């Protein structure tokens, strides 16, 4: 996976990422644990709105990657009686939307919750693109996984398919993180 210069790194091409994402799909249901105490789900089947289910899963923190009145309008007030801490990310599932501006803050939110022994649910409408991109960025930023490792980890538990724009932004993040780790060592 090296680039043209010795020691340089280039993120895997989109084709290789799609191979991992599209092969060996299996029925994964509406909500899946993709990392210890980290769940990825959709909202179409009302997982994100099912307080009883959230309590059964012991969810303490929610990231809504489709936040807003034009999207999935839950907001922090929706979960206040359940004691759930909420982070809303107003992202469009469009290849032209820059979701990378949310990578760092969302990764920190998830990281902090998990360090407090919390349980995090990350969702969007279908639980495959926006929310998946944010979970992948968390695994890369806070757990030190490469993009390919993060994809493979999540795909063991859930079918995901971030849109092409999000995949390119994750590729850029992968390259930047690899360069940062290389410079530090």
Question: What does this molecule look like?
Answer:
- By secondary structure, the chain is of the alpha/beta class.
- The chain has a single domain (14-184), classed as Protein tyrosine phosphatase superfamily (Protein-Tyrosine Phosphatase, Chain A), CATH 3.90.190.10.
- 41% of the residues lie in helices and 11% in strands.
- The protein contains 7 helices and 5 strands, in the order αββαβαβαβααα.
- A 5-stranded mixed beta sheet has the order 1-2-5-3-4, covered by helices on one side.
- A hairpin with a 2-residue loop joins strand 1 and strand 2.
- Helix 5 crosses helix 6 (147-155).
- The longest helix is centred in the C-terminal third of the chain and has 21 residues, at 164-184.
- The model is unreliable at 1-6 (pLDDT under 50).
| Residue runs with pLDDT of under 50 for 5 or more positions | 1-6
Radius of gyration: 16 Å
Order of helices and strands: HEEHEHEHEHHH
| CATH fold field value | Protein-Tyrosine Phosphatase, Chain A
Shape: globular
Q: Which percent range describes the beta-strand content?
A: 5-15%
Number of domains: 1
Which CATH-level-2 architecture?
Alpha-Beta Complex
The largest sheet is: 5 strands, mixed
Structural class: alpha/beta
Distance between the termini: 20 Å
Q: Percent range for helical residues? A: 40-55%
CATH uppermost class: Alpha Beta
């Amino acid at each position: 996976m090296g680039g043209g210069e010795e020691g340089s790194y280039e993120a895997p091409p989109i084709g290789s990422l799609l191979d991992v994402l599209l092969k060996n799909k299996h029925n994964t249901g509406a909500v899946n644990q993709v990392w210890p105490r980290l769940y990825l789900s959709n909202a179409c089947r009302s997982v994100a709105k099912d307080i009883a289910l959230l309590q059964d899963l012991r969810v303490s923190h929610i990231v809504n990657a489709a936040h807003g009145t034009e999207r999935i309008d839950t907001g922090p007030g929706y979960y206040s009686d359940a004691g759930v801490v909420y982070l809303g990310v107003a992202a469009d599932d469009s290849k032209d939307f820059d979701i990378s501006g949310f990578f760092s803050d969302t990764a920190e939110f998830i990281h902090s919750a998990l360090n407090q022994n919390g349980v995090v649910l990350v969702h969007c409408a279908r639980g495959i693109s926006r929310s998946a991109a944010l979970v992948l960025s968390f695994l890369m930023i806070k757990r030190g996984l490469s993009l390919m490792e993060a994809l493979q980890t999540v795909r063991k538990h859930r079918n995901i398919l971030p849109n092409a724009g999000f995949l390119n932004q994750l590729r850029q993040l992968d390259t930047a993180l690899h360069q940062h780790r290389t410079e530090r060592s």
